[in-house]
Fold this protein.
Amino acid sequence: QVQLVESGGGLVQAGGSLSVSCAASGRTVANYAMGWFRQAPGKDREFVAAMSWNERNTNYADSLKGRFTISRDRPMNTVYLQMNSLKPEDTAVYYCNVRLPWRTYWGQGTQVTVSS
């Protein structure tokens, strides 16, 4: 079993920055891809960013390229999401996940609210 715990969410003004993190426990996830999704009120969960196990490949939602940056600390079993130039439409619950061969695990999410 893998447990994922997100932290770092909060309230920020438009144009500001925020970093959220996600720590995995239960087993090492260093050899698996990790990513971030978000879900705004009344909307479906959507992809934000992902990083391969060896950090060589990253993918971003087209609308977020240049503002969001994913990174990870493999020995610490942690993935990060740096969010810059935040907009009110970035308001959502942000979830991390890790894709293991037999299933994908999800965290409980952390709320990010961007005020205008």
